[in-house]
Amino acid sequence: MRVEELYSGKAKTLYRIEPGKLLMRFRDDVTAFDGKRKEVAGGKGVLSAKTSAKLFELLEEAGIPTHYICYRGGPDMIVKEAKVIPIEVIVRNYAYGSLLKRMPLLKPLQKFTRPIIELHFKSDELHDPLILPQDVIEAGLLTEDELREVERLALEVNNVLRNFFESKGYRLIDFKIEVGRVDGKLVVVDELSGDTMRILDSEGRHLDKEVFRKGGSVQELLEAYKRLAEIVGEPRRVCEQ
Q1: Integer Cα distance of 187 and 104 in angstroms
Q2: What is the pTM of this model?
C-alpha cells in the first residue's frame, strides 16, 4: 500500500492511501500537560485503535455519521478524509477537571441535571482555550445552523456512549469529540479512546489517561486501557486485505 503522510500529532499519524481515504495509525506515545510529560507505552496504539473502531461502530449503528470506514488491524483504522473544524467539543456529565477550576461552587463528581457542552479552539500554542458559541460563528468556523448540528451530534454521541457504559456498570464522566465535513456533511471524526474520555468503575478507578495525568506508570496506564478495550469489545467491521 503506497501511502503519503499528511499529519503527525501527539499520538496519531494520518496517511492518505487514496483520494478521500486515509489510514489513521495510533502510536504508542502518551502525553500529558501539553506534552510536558511524554512516554512510550508499548501496545497502547493497538488498544486505542480497537477501542475507537468499536465505539465508532456503535455510533454508526445508532445512526450517527462518522468518518470511520473499517478497522485494519493492529494500530490502524481506515477513515474518510474530512475537512476538520478546529474545535474540540467536550461533553460533561459530571463535574471534573478544569470545570471545577472554572466553577468552584460545584462539587467534584457532581452529576449534572443535563450534560454541559463546551467548545474549545484547537491550538496547542494557546492551550485549547474555552470559547463561546458566538465566537465560533463570528470567526466563520460554523454557521448558526451548523453549530446547532454539532451540538446535536455531541449530545447524541453522549447518549450512545453513556448508555453503553452505564449498562456495564461504568460512569462516563466526560469526553471530547471533533467534527469535520465529508462531502459537505458534518460527521464525528478523530478518535474515541481512553485518550479522549474519562470513565470510572464502581470503585472510582479510571479506565483512561487520567491514570497517567495523576502520576501513574506506563504499565498502570496500559492495564486501564486493556480493561477499557475488553469492556468495549472487538471491532466487527474489519477491512478486507
Answers
A1: 34
A2: 0.95
